[in-house]
Design a protein that fits this description.
single chain, 184 residues, mainly alpha, two-stranded antiparallel sheet, two-stranded antiparallel ribbon, 4 strands, globular
Amino acid sequence: FITGRIERLQQDVKIDVLWTAFPLHPETPEDGRSLKDLFAGRPINIQEMLAHLRKTADHLGLPFGDRQMTFNSRRAQELGKWAEDCGNGDAFHKATFKAYFADGLNLAHMPVLMDIAQSVDLDPNEAQTVLETQRYKAAVDRDWQRSRTLGITAVPTFVMNDHHLVGAQSYQDLTRFVQTNIGQ
């Protein structure tokens, strides 16, 4: 849901955005995991967290549904790399966010990913082949390694010229971050 701010920043400041895959709960099984199970034993109020996320999404005019599950996003990340190479990366990422955050769809399931690909004018048969052959596995592995090398532990994290800004930031803070680091 950070995409609304990023899209605005791209227009206002004229920057290019490189999406980097991050290993967010890679141990999540294919059928997903409840948020209650994911955060068990940690001092996190799930309802408060979801209310905060919903408020942020509402502020940005982005859809946000009643999430109860988390799903493994590895396949979506691999397909996202392919979509970027096809020139549909931003549309694919936006559709994936909507499918996950608003519709609560399982991004580990192939039919869901084929539907998302088709929704942004990508060939679902080719998308399936990309996933079955793991054509973009190495690209995602490199992104995951880059995340570890840079010490990234949360999403979203914005990186520019070796500087980091972590978390869902206001548009003003993102603008300040870019303007401070653009010439370095």
